[in-house]
Amino acid sequence: MTQDELKQLVAAAAIDLLPHGEIIGVGTGSTVNFFIDALAGIKQHIRGAVSSSERSTQRLRAHGIAVYDLNDVGQIPVYVDGADEIDPSGAMIKGGGGALTREKIIAEAAERFICIVDQSKLVQTLGQFPLPVEVVPMARELVARKLRDIGGEPRERTGYLTDNGNLILDVHGLRITQPREFETRVNQIPGVVTVGVFAHRGADTALIGTATGVERRDFV
Ligand code: 5RP
Questions:
Q1: Are residues 194 and 183 in contact, defined by beta-carbon separation less than 8 angstroms?
Q2: Which helix (H) or strand (E) holds 36?
Q3: Given the CA of residue 100, which atom of ligand 1 is nearest to it?
Q4: pTM to 2 decimal places
Q5: Distance in Å, CA 28 to ligand 1 centroid
Q6: For residue 215, which of 29, 37, 118, 208 is within the disulfide window of CB 3.0 to 4.6 Å?
Q7: Is the Cβ atom of 196 under 6 angstroms away from ligand 1?
Q8: 97, 157 Cβ separation under 8 angstroms
Q9: Counting atoms of ligand 1 from 1, which one is nearest the CA of 196?
């Protein structure tokens, strides 16, 4: 199976876990695009979606799925999103697609986070994928220095601004053995909007696309 076929497989599997008659939290990325396309097939069973990016919003609306403002919705039962890496505890690196801030907000508002990934995203230790950090533009150099102090090699994502008008620093060379502590530490740097480590609010369930089918892991 190709990587895209694995992504499609897990996206379809996530559909089976959705409650009916509810507003669903929707992430961003190529795996989520397959999920949105699958969601279109059952759109009569859901009330609509809360979206983590302008890209996902456009795709949802193109399928005729209503998109709500999170402020008008409050808590949502489930959030479905991909990841760049996921470790054995359900902690993730996210933000490869640049939508990490809205993703983290919706994840926090959700009772349940279902992570949909192909098997290439499974890691023992987070950090091989360059860690995205969303940064207020005037703090770029300050934050970059602090990230170097903790052992990373930050590189600005060139020609890119987030949906919130901020920069992304992609931090290479990290080995994140204690994701919760690391997330807290980077969050405390002034000018950091969001760090792409999702450990305090990690996944509750991962659906993993493998050559032999979808494997489910539940994290307590
Ligand atoms: C976007 C994300 C995505 O979930 C992550 O980058 C995985 O994307 P893909 O499904 O395309 O591999 O965090 O900000």
A1: no
A2: helix 30-40
A3: 14
A4: 0.97
A5: 6
A6: 208
A7: no
A8: no
A9: 13
The arithmetic mean of pLDDT across residues 5-33, rounded, is: 98
CA distances from 51 to 68, 96, 99, 104 (A): 8, 17, 10, 12
* Catalytic residue flag (residue 153): no
Q: Which among 86, 94, 19, 85 is positioned nearest to 53, based on CA atoms?
A: 94
Atom of ligand 1 nearest to the CA of 33: 10
Sheet holding 131-135, edge to edge: 153-156, 167-172, 131-135, 192-195
Tell me: the pLDDT tens digits for 97-141?
A: 999 999 999 999 999 999 999 999 999 999 999 999 999 999 999
Instruction: Tell me what the mean pLDDT of segment 64-77 comes to.
Output: 96
Whether residue 28 has its Cβ less than 6 Å from ligand 1: yes
From the candidates 103, 141, 153, 156, give the one annotated as an active-site residue: 103
Q: Return the structure tokens found at 216.
A: 């489910």
Report the chain's mean pLDDT, rounded to a whole number.
Answer: 98
